[in-house]
Amino acid sequence: MQSQPRILVVDDTPRNIKVLEAMLTPRGYVVTAATSAAEALLKMAAEAPDLVLTDVVMPEMDGYELCRRLRADPATRLLPVVMVTASDDKEKVSALEAGADDFVQKPFNQAELLARVASLLRIKTYHDTILRQAAELAELNQSLETRVQDQVAELERLSRLRRFLSPQVAELLVCRPTARRCSKATGGRSPWCAASCPGSPRSPTQPPQKKCWRCCARTTNDWAASSTASKARSARSSRIV
Questions:
Q1: Alpha-carbon distance 31 to 22, whole Å?
Q2: Residue 106 near residue 75 (C-beta atoms within 8 A)
Q3: How far apart are alpha carbons 187 and 2 in whole angstroms?
Q4: Residue 62: helix, strand or coil by DSSP?
Q5: Is the peptide bond before 107 cis (omega within 30 degrees of 0)?
Q6: Within its chain, how far is the Cα of 241 from the centroid?
Q7: Are residues 123 and 190 both part of a single domain?
Q8: Does residue 38 lie within any of the structural domains?
């Protein structure tokens, strides 16, 4: 909901609209007026009100039909609707059956009107918060699912490479592109992954005694040991030659 709640007042009597504006505007509400139900439906998309305050008796389309159309539209299905009724109990029942959330009677009682409006707007705020959190949770779930799929793909790739290559070479081939992705994902703010991956161009001469937890399954100690063994083999080969 917006910082200043918008209320759409629907009434074919201009005097009633002015009375409602005088009650609502000083309380920080932004009031938009419509003199017919048809005009209210047109303004609904443009104004995006947080609450509708409508009269029952209007020409062409009455308040009941307006409420039923709002409830039939998925975009306004949960929009709070308050109907202005007479003291007739039958009118109140009809208003609730049409889908109205609440009603106020003429002549207007300012304290009652403001209390009912504030109550419904508070409920709408809770509902909007739930929808926003649900959308954020769905986005996080999608991101987590994508990350899991990427990790599974890397493991499958490493498994295939190990069938034809030595474990050290297979892990090196998988580690290099992963390190670049990690560095790119963090915007360069966390270079640990790229700096500590064995075989990475950014690897220090003596890597720290830690595991590259973002992309490598081996410790840097293992890499240092394999590197030392490789140098020893090269030295033996040179002596033989």
A1: 10
A2: no
A3: 34
A4: coil
A5: yes
A6: 67
A7: no
A8: yes
Same domain, 125 and 180: no
Number of domains in the chain: 2
> Based on C-alpha coordinates, what's the Rg of the chain?
34
The answer to whether the beta carbons of residues 50 and 80 sit under 8 Å apart is: yes
Domain that residue 18 falls in? 6-135
Terminal Cα-to-Cα distance of the chain (whole angstroms): 80
Write out the two tokens for 34. Answer: 């419509």
Same domain, 29 and 127: yes
Look-up of token digits 């699912």: 145
Structural tokens at position 192: 């640990």
Record the pTM.
0.59
Q: Please check whether residues 196 and 102 belong to one and the same domain.
A: no
Sheet holding 6-10, edge to edge: 30-34, 6-10, 51-55, 81-85, 102-105
- On whether both 18 and 114 belong to a single domain, the answer is yes
pLDDT in tens, 90-139: 888 888 899 999 989 888 889 999 999 999 999 999 988 888 888 889 88
Clarify whether residues 175 and 87 are in a common domain.
no
Other beta carbons less than 10 A from residue 62's beta carbon: 16
